[in-house]
Amino acid sequence: MRKILIVDDDDELRSNLSVVLGEIGYDTETAPSGSEAVAKAVSNNFDIALLDLMMPETSGMDVLAELRKITPRTRVIVITAFASTDTAVEAMKKGASDYIAKPFTVENLDITIKKTLEEARFTQGVKQLGLDDTFGALSNSIRREIMKMLDLHKGMRLVELRKALEIEDHTKVLFHLKILREAGLVSQENKTYVLTKEGKEILHAVRLLENQFSQ
Q: Can you give the pTM of this predicted structure?
């Protein structure tokens, strides 16, 4: 059973999330503050930490940094208000795996958690096979999906990608595209994103890797 730490100063939200995630099948613990979250993370092996960025006692960014330091295997999903997506993207640059904006549905949260757990599994596979940092950039399932879509359609615009991915927040899609471009896997021609030659070669290898670790 996957273990999830819920970090939020909102007592009602924290309690509700614990109940619904428990019903789905996750083992949950809660922390009303950043300091308590860090204390629990020291003595527990959490797979996921759901971290509210806006807490009165300690900055969510500071808690993120501390969690990444003391328990690097724990994947962090930050919770933020929709108007603060720029801050959430900054959190991803500092090590968060993903973010989800309030208000969100239980279904969307569960999808985000499952994608993050898949990212951890893929990353572990990359490490076991001794692959390079390029494959590490593709540990995120959204980035792999972007590459597959670009390969299928021979290039797509941002609005087309966002609709195909069913992600309303274009900021998140742009963040992942930036990572792919910096890795040399995707290029932009006018307003269309396409796979580079290296991107096509890496995508083929990624598919082989996915097949190997799904068996």
A: 0.79
